[in-house]
TrEMBL record:
Spans traversing the lipid bilayer: none
The protein's name: Hsp70 family protein
Gene3D superfamilies linked: 3.30.420.40, Actin, Chain A, domain 4
Keywords: ATP-binding, Nucleotide-binding
A Pfam short name: HSP70
Superkingdom of the organism of origin: Bacteria
Keyword ATP-binding among record annotations: yes
Source organism per UniProt: Stenotrophomonas capsici
Length: 453
């Protein structure tokens, strides 16, 4: 049996094709699991950091190197600035070393909690470490230790999926077909795609799969659409997820196997709208645009998927920032509060897709604090992403040279009216078909896993 796995940025799902039917894997009462993991054991906190003689030597070497670089570049940097930058680097390396210690890697991963339970456990325990959306980091330039940590996290999520499927399906599942975006999020160009696939393959093998294959997510969605289409026709498959947007041009339906003509993709999705909404509607409550706190501090706080940026945010000092913004930023630095804020933003985005306004209570920051947002807020926040989506759809139309018979929409973000309107406007004469937002890709992966030789 070959398991289809949609390892998503925000949520993951799995299914198998058994006796002519797609059988989804249940995670408790749900058919998908949030791609989030919580480690109950506490890793070393940056506040525990102390300069040993060896670390002091590293620090002085970095200060001297920074002084030489500044002199060569003709810039003027004070000794205090040079030391602060060097100290940040030494502290970060110290933290990465702690992650590699047995007590904070092996034991930590063995006691992990997954999905929505991970969020609740993190909020309840108010300690430990929460990692959200590890998929979003797979294509980035990673230090070898950071790469090993990300691989370990992906391994345990995939192992959780494999063991859950094995228990439900009554057999030891050892083969998997994983969905992959056309373009992973990356800081190193095309090399990021190769690295991401290497990490996922290594993680899947370590998770107990003996055989691992990959299929582009829009091709998987096309398999699902093909299975429910009686007549042969051309279609544009649009899969809009949390981290990526993927499009395929395909011939589907009838007795002939589906044919994928071409695929396109951008490394943008729902999490980019979350970030824009957080910065525009929520972060002004913390002084964004009002105080002299640099904008990148707010970006660090909002990007909960980026563990290094979260760590950097927690190290800033806001004692000199006037009330109420300084105390609010300090409260946001408390364990779990950036994750709580992100969940509020995410819930707001979902709510505003079907209602005109939404209120978020932020009492975990300050008693009585709340923010009221409306549909125009969401429209403005989504504007940057929509511009990229519309450009991609226009490119697809130009490359195809004609309109398809249908546009098939899937992916979690396909529920949003503004996504549907953008797709309809790009292909006004095509029939807009709404697929299953959460399970279109994984159903196609299950079907493709059976069809694969």
């Amino acid at each position: 049996m070959k398991l289809g796995i949609d390892f998503g940025t925000s949520n993951s799902a799995a299914a198998a094709h058994i006796d002519g039917k797609v059988v989804p894997v249940h995670f408790g009462d749900a058919l998908q699991v949030r791609t989030t993991v919580y480690f109950p054991e506490v890793m070393r906190d940056p506040n525990d950091f102390e300069l040993s003689p060896a670390l002091e030597q590293q620090l002085e070497a970095l200060v001297e190197s920074g002084r030489r670089d500044a002199r060569s570049a003709g810039t003027d940097r004070s000794p205090a600035q040079l030391r602060a930058d060097a100290l940040r680097v030494v502290r970060r390396q110290w933290m990465e070393e702690r992650i590699r210690e047995p007590q904070s890697s092996t034991t930590l991963l063995q006691n992990a909690v997954y999905g929505d339970d991970a969020l609740e456990a993190y909020f309840e325990e108010n300690e430990g470490n929460l990692v959200q959306s590890p998929k979003s980091m797979l294509g980035y330039n990673l230090h070898p230790r950071a790469r090993q940590t990300i691989t370990g996290i992906a391994t345990h999520i995939l192992e959780h999926i494999r063991l859950t499927a094995s228990r439900q399906l009554g057999q030891n599942v050892r083969s998997a077909l994983l969905g992959r975006p056309v373009q992973f999020r990356s800081s190193i160009g095309e090399a990021g795609n190769d690295q991401a696939l290497e990490i996922l393959r290594s993680a899947a093998l370590a998770a107990g799969f003996d055989e691992v294959d990959f299929l582009e997510e829009p091709a998987a969605a096309a398999m699902h659409y093909h299975a429910v289409s009686d007549q042969r026709h051309e279609a544009v498959i649009v899969d809009v997820g949390g981290g990526t947007t993927d499009i395929a041009h395909a011939s589907v339906g009838g007795d002939t196997p589906p044919r994928i003509h071409r695929a396109w993709g951008i490394a943008r999705g729902g999490t980019d709208i979350d970030l824009a909404l957080s910065l525009a509607a929520y972060m002004p409550l913390f002084g964004r645009g009002i105080t002299r706190v640099p904008t990148h501090h707010y970006v660090e706080a909002a990007m909960v998927q980026d563990t290094p940026r979260q760590r950097e945010f927690r190290q800033h000092n806001y004692d000199a920032v006037d009330a109420p913004y300084g105390p609010r930023l300090q409260a946001l630095q408390d364990t779990g509060n950036t994750a709580r804020l992100y969940r509020a933003v995410e819930q707001c985005k979902i709510a505003l897709s079907s209602t005109d306004s939404h209120a978020s209570a932020l009492s975990f920051i300050e008693a009585g604090l709340s923010v009221e947002t409306d549909a125009p807020h969401l429209g403005n926040a989504a504007g940057g992403y929509l511009g990229e989506l519309e450009a991609l759809l226009a490119q697809v139309r130009q490359d195809i040279g004609h309109e398809p018979a249908a546009v098939f929409l899937t992916g979690g973000m396909s529920r949003a009216g503004y996504i549907q309107r953008a797709a309809a406007a790009a292909f006004p004469n095509a029939t807009l078909v709404h697929g299953d937002p959460s399970f279109g890709v994984v159903q196609g992966l299950a079907l493709a896993a059976t069809a694969a030789p």
